[in-house]
Fold this protein.
Amino acid sequence: MTRDSDRPDRPHRARKRFGQNFLVREDIIHHIVQAVNIKPGDQVVEIGPGLGALTSRLLDAAGSLQVIEIDRDLATRLRSRNDPRLYILEADVLNIDFQSLMADSQKLRVVGNLPYNISTPLLLKLAHAHEALADLHVMLQQEVVDRLIASSHTRAFGRLSVLMQSVFTIEHVLAVPPDAFKPAPKVQSAVARLTPRSDAADGPTLQALELATRMAFNNKRKTLRNNFRHTFDEAQLRELDIDPSARAETLALDAFHRLADAIIVRT
Ligand code: SAM
């Protein structure tokens, strides 16, 4: 069997298992590149360059570019460009140590039309790596962006909102319809900008928040008294200024931080 990689001149067949939906609409590509606003010398990392819809523009703007691509055929295609400014890491982004991509302690600007099938673990990984990051511009399912920016007391508010908002300031940049991609996904997409907060949660706090939010949102319809019954009794929740009869989606971010701090004190 002849593999794609043997013939970079042949059209690539999109692989579902790698979440491959390639950007094809020029106006959307242009808008994303403008929003990212790369300056010469920026240290840019593209996650999942694919067929390169964003790659050349990012590369030309920055002067050099690191890309992380899991698909061997696509990595081969990129290598066949023979561009010395392009550093191709053929790897699973979930195994990448972002800190190790930094040169001269310069923080990374990360851009990616992300594979939707790994968006949650990837976002959490990036949250843990925030000290290496200047900012992120990521294409996600609209529904995931809604969760990222959701405030408490809304339906979209959940674990991802608490964890990511504890590390990043998050903005919705652009709505992207299915026809911007080939093949077209079934869902609406959106680009978000995430910038590390000056008071971003550190590693231990983030871990404790992961625990606190897992418990709090374990059963969204149940009260906090119920969801925390193995960890905090009613009196302890009240001491943390948390109403035991409330539900997780009504808690503000700082209440989750009080829970996380109480978890850290115990361990
Ligand atoms: N950037 C291209 C574009 O906008 O047209 C492609 C975007 S496509 C939605 C996602 C890309 O991520 C694909 O190239 C896919 O092979 C790559 N990918 C999927 N899973 C990956 C992983 N775990 N690590 C690195 N790259 C991955």
